[in-house]
């Protein structure tokens, strides 16, 4: 007779004790589709030119292996370390002053790192303060977790910086978590020292956690690395990945850097999600973060960014209907346009009629705006912009309404 562990007669009654199942109090509440990611997921692989991507043109595996002078033919395709290999966690820890491997949880992209962080930190009824506009994953997750989201606006006329007084008013005794994306998505702006200090001070005053999505660190146009929030306060979780600054989105390697006790809890949550990073991608990520390879990847990224922003801004100048602030980091430029078409219609027509994908500003709550990805090789970028120009030639650009 076959018996299950814990059943009478199995000889294992003490191993899996019987107890009633209880509802998960952290279960998701109302689910809101992630508009921007749905838009990209549905269309980014079916267009001629993808200007919706926020990272630089990706490398091929052979290019990475050539830079590393290494091979991966000996990788055994079994289950590896579910929290990331010791070598990879050590390489990631070196990116953060004072961090050790036990501070690092490797995840399948920064999206999973953000997900498990909110899963652990946010409870129904909590307040979560978020700088906006932002990458809406964390906003949607906070709302779905039953939290009340408090928006802290970034002001265009202040270089996409928050007002310190608004920070202080928005973060209070009920605030459980403060979320920042720095450098910013969609604006590409880097927080000023004063804004950074105001956020840290307000979070510390009320004992709130601070989640810093820092996926664009390393993709600064001027080459000066953005200061991480890690180490500025004892309740900081910093997330990052190889997708944007390194041109390796297909590896799906991201991470969370946190106090060791929290890192252990984040690790436990991935037992319910993806279990572990792939052994092959873990090895390739370790090669990418080698001290001899990493500077070469970041140098490549910055060359692409400099060439791309020059081409995009020249096109803006030629068209005469765009306003923008040059981004500090990332292959993204958030631009207002003056034309008689809303951003959702413009993006949809551009996709259907011209096979070019952009992110409409409406996905960030902004009307006649476009988030341009300019990380393509320059000939492809110019060809894509030419098609957008052809579309704009068919609409009324005389209106001054933004």
Distance between the termini: 74 Å
Strand order of the largest sheet: 2-9-8-7-6-3-4-5
The residue fraction in helices comes out at 25-40%
Structural class: alpha/beta
The H-level CATH homologous superfamily of the largest domain, spelled out, is Type I PLP-dependent aspartate aminotransferase-like (Major domain)
How many helices? The count is: 12
Number of strands: 14
Poorly predicted runs of 5 or more residues: 1-27
What is the count of structural domains? Answer: 2
Determine the CATH topology of the largest domain: Aspartate Aminotransferase, domain 2
> What is the approximate shape?
globular
What would CATH call the class of the largest domain?
Alpha Beta
Radius of gyration over all CA atoms, rounded: 23 Å
- CATH architecture field of the largest domain: 3-Layer(aba) Sandwich
Q: What share of residues are in beta strands?
A: 15-25%
Q: What would a concise description of this structure say?
A:
The protein is of the alpha/beta class. Helix content is 35%, strand content 15%.
Key words describing this protein structure:
Aspartate Aminotransferase, domain 1, Aspartate Aminotransferase, domain 2, alpha/beta, 35% helix, 12 helices, single chain, eight-stranded mixed beta sheet, four-stranded antiparallel beta sheet
